[in-house]
C-alpha cells in the first residue's frame, strides 16, 4: 500500500470549479470515482486531502469508502482574509469567523483541521514566502479548538517564523516547510512532529524546464536544493518525514504525483525501501490510521 499524505482532488483534468458548481451529482460522482479508481489501480490506498472550496473532497471521502480507500479530508482549508489560500477553502478575519466556520466543518465531520499559515514560495525573490497570516494567539486558539474536538491539525507553512509558530502551538503535521533552518528541524524532531515536504511541485517544474518559469528556474532550483538538503538533515536528526505530492498543484498529476515524490526522494540519495517505509509508517501516523 502507498500513502499520499497531501493531495487536492478538486484540482484535476476532469472538471474546473465553475463546471463543478453547475454540474449534476452524477457527473461529480463519476469524475471522482474515475480518479479514485486510478489511485486504487496503482495501489495508492490511503489519501489525505488538503481541502478545497467546493466540497469535492467531502464527496470523495464517501466514494473512497466504497472503493476501499482510506480518505481523510479537512473539508475546506482555513486562511486569513486577504492572504494566500482562499481557493482552498474559506477566508476568515479573526476568531469569531473561525468559530462560525469550525461549526460548518464539524457538521461535515472534518478528519483534520487545515490551516494555511503563510504564503507560498516566491519564485521571483529568494527567501520570500509571504508573511505569517495569523497571529500566534489566533493560531493557538484554532489548534486548541481542533484538539479539544479530537481532530489533528495540518498546517501549510513556509519559512522559519511560520513553521516555528506552528511547531510551538503543537500542530500535528507541517506541510511544505520550504526555506526553514536547522532550528525548526530540531524542534520538529523534539516534538516528534511529521513533516510533509512536497518536492513534486518544484521538482516537476525543474524536470520539465517549464518555459512558463524560464526566468525563475534559477531561484526555483536554489529553493529545491535547500529543501532536499533539509530533508537529508532532518532524517539524520530523527524528524518523521511522510510523503505528500501536493497532487492537483501546478504540474503535479493525480496518481502520478506520489510516484514523482518517491523518485525525487530516491534522487537525493534514499534507498527505495527506506522511502516506502517513510511513506507507509509516517504516512499512517499523519492519517491517524
Automatic annotation (TrEMBL):
InterPro entries on file: Amidohydro-rel, Metal_Hydrolase, Metallo-dep_Hydrolase
SUPFAM superfamilies attached to this UniProt entry: Metallo-dependent hydrolases
Domain Amidohydrolase-related: 2-289
GO MF annotation list: hydrolase activity
Protein keywords: Hydrolase
Pfam families xrefs: Amidohydro_1
Protein name: Amidohydrolase family protein
